[in-house]
């Protein structure tokens, strides 16, 4: 019932916003208000199995336990490896400009469907589930506390159509979880690019080369973390890390919900 009513409210909100904004589908502030009301009026259900959540959150303990934590990760790029292997061949021969990538999970069920709901359906509750699960995994992975989290920026057209940047919302929720850990839009897109998922792996680095520039980077940042939802080839995060390195950031890490 909660899910059905929530969908109806979101649909009505979206229709109203379309007429008021000349076509823009989503207003983030209104969506956050809708989600807040639903959380108060109806008890949360698990977004994965649809049953009542025994945790009081958007994911029950059973489905949380089924999230696909990786056996081991490359100590640099975070790709899944056997537990006995510390680094992949690519990073051993040509390490990326970031120091360490930590991925909460492999890009498998139920993580993949939650990412899709969050990113493309505007399901903010799914985003909160992912951020909370990532925060818990970062504790397990002994992540060092950085000076600043930096969301990977979206192209402005994509941001306008979607109504939000999923990396910014992840930063917002991670900040709450980690006691006000600072975050800022310290990077910006300097040109439009083709969506990375539409390109073969060997064309992705060229697609994003020179596509990012420094934004509002606070002074004195020595250790920054790039935050995004999914890392596949790492081309986007590599290009972002290069910009931060050129700006004088000494250590750049990466936190992503999932590694594909």
Descriptive report:
- By secondary structure, this protein is of the alpha/beta class.
- The protein is built from 10 helices and 8 strands.
- The chain has a single domain (68-259), classed as 3-Layer(aba) Sandwich (Rossmann fold), CATH 3.40.50.
- The chain has helices at 2-21, 28-41, 61-65, 89-93, 111-121, 124-140, 156-162, 166-177, 201-208, 235-246; strands at 72-73, 80-81, 100-106, 148-151, 187-189, 212-214, 223-231, 251-259.
- The strands form 3 sheets. A 4-stranded parallel beta sheet has the order 3-8-7-4, with helices on both faces. Strands 1-2 form a two-stranded antiparallel ribbon. The chain has a two-stranded antiparallel ribbon with strand order 5-6.
Features:
single chain; 260 residues; alpha/beta; Rossmann fold; two-stranded antiparallel sheet; 10 helices; 8 strands; 43% helix; 15% strand; globular
Rg computed from alpha carbons, rounded to a whole number of angstroms: 19 Å
Named CATH topology:
Rossmann fold
The CATH first-level class comes to Alpha Beta
What is the count of helical runs?
A: 10
Short description:
The protein has one domain: Rossmann fold. The chain has 260 residues and is an alpha/beta fold.
């Amino acid at each position: 019932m909660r899910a059905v009513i929530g969908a109806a409210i979101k649909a009505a909100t979206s229709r109203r916003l379309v007429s008021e904004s000349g076509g823009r589908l989503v207003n983030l502030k209104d969506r956050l208000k809708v989600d807040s009301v639903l959380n108060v009026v109806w008890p949360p259900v698990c977004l994965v199995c649809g049953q009542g959540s025994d945790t009081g959150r958007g994911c029950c303990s059973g489905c949380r336990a089924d999230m696909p934590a990786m056996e081991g990760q490359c100590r640099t790029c975070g790709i899944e490896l056997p537990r006995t292997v510390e680094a992949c061949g690519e990073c051993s021969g040509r390490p990326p400009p970031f120091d360490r990538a930590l991925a909460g999970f492999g890009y498998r069920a139920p993580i993949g469907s939650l990412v899709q709901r969050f990113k493309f359906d505007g399901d903010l509750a799914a985003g909160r589930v992912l951020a909370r699960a990532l925060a818990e995994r970062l504790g397990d992975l002994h992540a060092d506390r950085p000076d600043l989290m930096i969301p990977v920026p979206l192209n402005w057209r994509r941001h306008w159509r979607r109504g939000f940047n999923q990396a910014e919302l992840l930063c917002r929720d991670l900040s709450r979880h980690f006691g006000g850990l600072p975050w800022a839009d310290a990077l910006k897109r300097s040109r439009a690019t083709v969506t990375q998922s539409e390109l073969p792996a060997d064309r992705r680095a060229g697609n994003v080369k020179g596509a990012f520039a420094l934004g509002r980077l606070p002074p004195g940042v020595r250790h920054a973390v790039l935050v995004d939802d999914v890392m596949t080839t790492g081309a986007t995060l590599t290009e972002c890390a290069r910009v931060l390195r050129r700006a004088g950031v000494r250590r750049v890490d990466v936190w992503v919900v999932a590694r594909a």
